[in-house]
Amino acid sequence: MIIWKSSLLAGITGVVLWVNAACLAPSLHAGVDAPVHLRCEGQEGPLGIYPRSPRLSWQLADTGSDVRQSAYQVVVAYSRENLDKGHFWWDSGKVISDQSVGVVYGGPEPEARQLYFWKVRVWDRSGNVSDWSEVATWETGLLGRGDWSARWITGHERDTAQSMPAVYYRTQFNIPPAGQEGDKVESARLYVSARGVFEGWINGQRVGEDYFAPGWTDYNIRNQYLTYDVTDALRKGENVLGFIVGDGWHNGYLMWGKHHRKNWYGEDTALLAQLVIRYQDGNEHIVATDENWLNRTGPIVSSDFYDGETYDARLELGNWSEPGYDAEGWWPCRLLQAPQVPMEAKRFGTVRQHETLKPVAVTRGEKGEWIYDFGQNMVGWVKLRVSGEEGDSVILRFAETLHPDGSLYTDNLRKAKVTDTYHFARAGTVEWEPHFTFHGFRYASVWAAHEPESVEAVVMHTQLQPAGSIETSNPLVNRLQQNIVWSLRSNFLEIPTDCPQRDERLGWTGDAQVFIRTAIYNRDVKNFFEKWLTDLRDAQGKDGQFPNIAPRLNQKSSAAGWGDAGVICPWAIYQFYGDRRVLEENYEAMKAWVDFQERSSDNLIRPESGFGDWLALDKEDSRGPGDTATPRALVATAFFAHAADLVARTAEVLENERDKQHYSDLHERVRTAFQKEFISQGGRVSGDTQTAYVLALGFGLVPERLRETASGYLVDDIRARDWHLSTGFIGTGLLMPVLNEIGRNDVAYRLLLQETYPGWLYSVRQGATTMWERWNSYSHENGFARGGMNSFNHYAYGAVGQWLYAVVGGISPLDPGFKSILIRPVPGGDLTWAKTHYDCPYGRIETDWKVEGDTFTLKAIVPPNTSAVVELPDGRRETVGSGVHNYTCTLPAASRG
Ligand code: RAM
């Protein structure tokens, strides 16, 4: 069936030709396809999952029109056969529900190290039942301290004031164990954690492809561990299990200025590992770290994230992780009395090597060094093949950009030495890359006796599934989008960081909260953020203050817009992924933050402190990045009101009526106090800056009757600056969404497409390949911004990405998790087309629009088990179910380029 809703009144603006292709022959659909894309805790067949009652999700495979689930049944068993035979460990029964995302496992308490098999079937709205899905699995890890027999071990006493050599550990064991009759190994799991960063080795083979595992937490509060299936790496007879542990975040340098130092979490790196071998006869054999393991140092003479790595091949240890090795010179380990803290299975992808980049240009520096340009600012390291003589060294340095004379620009690295060194043991050619460091760079210089045979840049970061893409008719906007994604990739390395190159690289909370929605549109960051929110909670003060940096180092107080990440991030995760557990987990902490603000305010007005609108450009005689024209008390009170509002809404989701009342009431009172203090009778907001208006409008603090006037002042200021923005970290993220809200996407497009300073395309015009910390980090005319705080890879201003997806692409959630979707693309500027997709929990949403003359056409794809409200530029609206939907309309004069 095709529905043509073509107007008879041709020629009148707004005529819509409705072609609902999704309705094509729905009657052919007798039944519903088996569900696909089964996920447990957002992962496919995870090993070692984190919570005791995992969340299960699936997608409906059916792409027909208006496909919806009316009921589901999940069954779980201990084996595939039991699942087939109907011997279930848990059977949800037929549950009348359209929920297919975040269904909580409701069976008996899971046991440690247990593999579960599960499948699901669904019913559609006509009562047709699907086939069972394919079988999926999850395996529990070590659930409590009692499941660990391993002890924390460490190497020799070290002079930890220096960057120290990485420690090598080894143990050997027999399969089957001595004195026992042989039986076949059925499975082997290795559970590993470190205070430091580890690489595992079994019988000469590297375990997994992870880097910098187990990642970063406040190690004295919580540790992560990884689980590996190492069944295939074991052999009959003698086996060797080995590890290398480097300083990483535990012992390496962290912080800048006078706080720049090592050993934030303790003096020694340490290792905790437990290998559980299951034999087919049911016997189990555990190999676990203890004082009998051996250790020594080797060729990794020093390794540090800020300073780089030094490798001395003369100290190599040969086949140290293989059987038959003579372990002379190795020493028994020491047991470390590490704090007894929760051990949690890692819940998101580790750092991996992704693509490699070949140089696009090579030049010679003044001292004869080779300088390579990889064409893209990025994070990772350089892998090279080079020859040398005995005793020769190769030295690599890194930079994000070059001085005009072609030398590396390293002023912005501050105290970070960012230098890798390789010492040759003997004459020959080697291929080398470091182990325990990373650099933020586009350029690398190599000092060596001979020109390297090959040099490539290895891109490294946390593994995150791509979630969306957007492409438009404007190549500069497309480059901006790529720059946003490159900065996301560069700064999502175990935690969300501010920058990847200088002596900082910290979990700055403000940066994370302004960027989170953009991050979600581009990558699946659910587990990544859920884990980082545990870091944020671990770092929360007893008084309720969330820190400016998580994991916390030494700061005590919190700034407005930074500490608020503890409320804004859980809410954003809930809105986009529709899973209320993130709200449950963070609820008490969110409340404590708001309560703290209530207690420490003066008649509900926050003190004049914090970072204000960091790096804004609205004060002529600014004395520094925090000295801007928007009053800090205004910024802070606006965020206080916003946080109280989000906590009230969270209480509503969690069905806590009393809290809902309390926080809605608090929100109302802060709102009134804000109006009295900061909004004039005539609708002027104190400071009269773009950010002041954006905060007041964006957080709903302007009285209804003054909204239009205040919106006018915002636009006036942008116009007075000849269509330029003046916002800093806080204002920039909200500026475009607010312009959308007040119906001024025409102004938003002017800002987006502005090519002169300050604006997004200015940096693109200056050759940026990532987002910059400052609007003018570099310009062709004036060179580099002064001072060391000048990162070329800082994602905060990339927060415009959220508006690109929601307004240019027209995709945003109406209901949490995109159960209902708003499809509302707004064409503007000189854009003639945009193609966008976003993989929401239910499947792929797509929009593809074109403007030809005054005709706007849109193709939208809505995934199964959702509905969408489609709104066209002429104001027409309709609600549709899943399927492909095509629309045509005449563009109203106002939205023509
Ligand atoms: C800088 C960081 C970060 C910002 C803080 C206030 O040092 O790089 O981006 O959030 O300051």
UniProtKB/TrEMBL annotation:
Signal peptide: none annotated. GO terms for biological process: carbohydrate metabolic process. Transmembrane segments: none annotated. Residues 184-355 form the Bacterial alpha-L-rhamnosidase N-terminal domain. GO terms for molecular function: alpha-L-rhamnosidase activity. Residues 366-461 form the Alpha-L-rhamnosidase concanavalin-like domain. Keywords: Hydrolase. Residues 810-881 form the Alpha-L-rhamnosidase C-terminal domain. Its EC number is 3.2.1.40. Residues 467-808 form the Alpha-L-rhamnosidase six-hairpin glycosidase domain. It catalyses: Hydrolysis of terminal non-reducing alpha-L-rhamnose residues in alpha-L-rhamnosides. This is alpha-L-rhamnosidase. It comes from Ruficoccus amylovorans. The lineage of its organism: Bacteria, Pseudomonadati, Verrucomicrobiota, Opitutia, Puniceicoccales.
